[in-house]
Design a protein that fits this description.
InterPro entries: His_Pase_superF_clade-1 (IPR013078), His_PPase_superfam (IPR029033), PGM_Phosphatase (IPR050275). By secondary structure, the chain is an alpha/beta fold. Helices cover about 35% and strands about 20% of the residues. Strands 3-2-4-1-5-6 form a six-stranded mixed sheet. The longest helix is centred in the middle third of the chain and has 18 residues, at about 120-135.
């Protein structure tokens, strides 16, 4: 079984200097072009059998463009959404630094942000949906997952069996692609954050 992990294209929040997270911004015109280039590349090199997407606009729009190019089934999964950043969603980073500053030393991993989730809850959510996908979709040879940068980093930690408190971060650029494989209980990384389709 292969997992093709795709980040959405550029969203309007990227241009506004705001905290995105659960704020539901759409793709920019550039983001739509990025998604189209990614979709053409994926369809010709790594066509999926099914696509599972976060329902947030920027991811869903990217997934719909991929579906149009590949012709395969698209399903939504709320657990693929980005970090629930609660009160920070949609507000400027300047405003957040003034009105909601981080405590000295940072927020402890087990304490949720106001009206949101904790880092541990985020990590456990990624762990849960990772195991659900590899069980529920095991009849498919290649499953495409369209999600968000922060979530993808947590999902990769789950794939790699990293500890819950691991401070590793896996970066994914706009429409960056990771290809993973699970074969006879061996977990293989084929490539990470491929963006050559944007060149």
């Amino acid at each position: 079984m292969e997992l093709l992990i795709v980040r959405h294209g550029q969203s309007e929040a990227d241009l506004l200097g705001v905290h995105e997270g659960r704020a539901d911004f759409p793709l920019t015109d550039l983001g739509e072009k990025q998604a189209k280039l990614m979709s053409v590349y994926v369809a010709s090199h790594f066509p999926p059998d099914i696509i599972i997407s976060s329902p947030l606009k920027r991811a869903r729009s990217t997934a719909l463009i991929l579906q149009e190019e590949t012709g395969c089934q698209l399903e939504e999964e709320t657990d693929l959404m980005e970090f629930n950043n609660g009160i920070l969603a949609g507000i400027s980073k300047v405003e957040a630094s003034i009105n909601y500053p981080l405590p000295p030393g940072g927020r402890p991993v087990h304490i949720p942000i106001e009206k949101g989730e904790s880092e541990l809850e985020f990590r456990f959510r990624a762990e849960r949906i990772f195991h659900q996908i590899i069980l529920d979709y095991q009849e498919y040879e290649r499953v495409a997952i369209v999600s968000h940068g922060g979530f993808i980093s947590q999902f990769l930690k789950a794939f790699l069996n990293q500890p819950n408190t691991s401070n590793h971060v896996f970066s994914t650029g706009d429409t960056g692609i990771h290809l993973l494989e699970i074969k006879e209980n061996v977990r293989i990384i084929k490539f990470m954050n491929k963006q050559e389709h944007l060149n």
